[in-house]
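[agent] plan:
  1. take the single chain provided in the ticket
  2. run structure prediction with default settings
  3. attach structure tokens to the ticket
  4. add a short note for the reviewer (M.T.)
[agent] executing step 1
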Amino acid sequence: MKPYTYTDGAVLPLGDGIIRLRRLKNRDKGHIRVYRRQEENGESVLCMASGMEDNPAAYRLAAVGWLREYARAQLGEKVRIYSTQMRVSVNRIAIKEQKTRWGSCSSKGNLNFNWKLVLMPQRIQNYVVVHELAHRKQMNHSAAFWSEVEKVLPDYMECRGWLREHEGEYARY
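[agent] step 2 finished; step 3 output follows
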């Protein structure tokens, strides 16, 4: 699959919707300021303001920086809600960019999530969060583990199937 290019007008999936990248030119050739706004037509736009020219790597880095912080907030809130519901504790949450993992949980209660998870539909994000939190009760993939997941997400098998079928589409970002 062809790598994604973070250029003006490009569209990214974001949860259950999309966000369009908008390049705004200014005089600052050393920095890229990234922020989100709603257009008058209701479209969500990720603005990248800079005077920098012909530096796709810098634009990717800037956009991914914003997406990582967005992931930290979104996934952090999901962890807060589901950890309370599941009655488990969490130590630390880290947002990373792994090639093959969407999440992981250590025996110390540290959770790691791939920032690209926020590009996926909300129900898939929920599934990965619940999956990792279930490891706080069962540090394996036994029947008892899947029972913990099913208590919270009775349709987890559908989400698991969706993730297996579509995860390759998100590697390009």
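[agent] step 4 note for reviewer: The chain has a mean pLDDT of 95.
[agent] ticket updated
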